[in-house]
């Protein structure tokens, strides 16, 4: 029996359509299609190195965490692939309400434009983390398929852990490692991998800079380590690089420098978890390696409050409707209404953009 190849252009169009009010993922994209997407994405990751070597111009983005409308906002303001080249630094799932849409669109772009679109692995692209912080529950609730969740984990285990831009800007999700001695180590990282502790691979996903630290110290996260400004300066000289670009931490303005501008943290999920008033940012790297930042301000508190109240009202309405209709077919109807509520709350509107560009120099 002939296996029918997915039309990835069509899949991308449908995934983008889900971002509009009233779109429903499970009605537009089947579980089988997502499984095929993951299989193809895995083959693309297998064909590329653990250290991705890139050349500008390109846009570098940090954590997304299932905030699908904010991902679309980034594409809208910077250009959709393949017109613009992208590098994402990990943490695509967990916390947010549209994790499946987020990771699936990113994987579809990776498959369709493998030499223009790049995805690094974050610490939330590990089974022990996304089993607990939202992704597993969302896949189970919407597709009722632990199998599908496992298929995504296979893809995650093949994702690259680092990238280097023109040999001068080193990128990863977390940070540096005391086990990192040279760039060649990053190329030699074997995959698939579930990073053990302690390890270079774990540090690339988990470590953090810390302004109060000198040298290397254990992390308060209980995983990996933190490192001081002295380590950043030393490692930049040792690895012959100019800048370290990483994500992994919420920063108020969307980006934040450390160690006299030798390291920058980029976070691309505004109003993170609905609890922080942080802005988001993306970093544009030009051909001469100069960097500029586009900042995405969160929606006003009044807008967020209204959206939250609307979501709560919809939730109550759905629960009452389900109770009135009885148990026959109740779960399917609740699922459809839940998705409609979640996906209808996207705030993908030009009027909400309050971006600004700032030169890093």
Key attributes of the depicted protein:
about 350 residues; alpha/beta; Purple Acid Phosphatase, chain A, domain 2; six-stranded mixed beta sheet; 15 strands; about 15% strand; metal ion binding; Metallo-depent_PP-like; Serine/threonine-protein phosphatase; hydrolase
Describe this structure in words.
- It is globular and about 65 Å long.
- Strand 5 (162-165) and strand 6 form a beta hairpin.
- Helix 1 runs antiparallel to helix 5, helix 3 (31-47) crosses helix 5 (99-112) and helix 12 (301-325) runs antiparallel to helix 13.
- Mean pLDDT is 89; it is low at 343-355.
- The strands form 3 sheets. A 6-stranded mixed β-sheet has the order 1-5-6-10-12-11. A 6-stranded mixed β-sheet has the order 4-3-2-13-14-15, covered by helices on one side.
- The protein has 13 helices and 15 strands.
- By secondary structure, the protein is of the alpha/beta class.
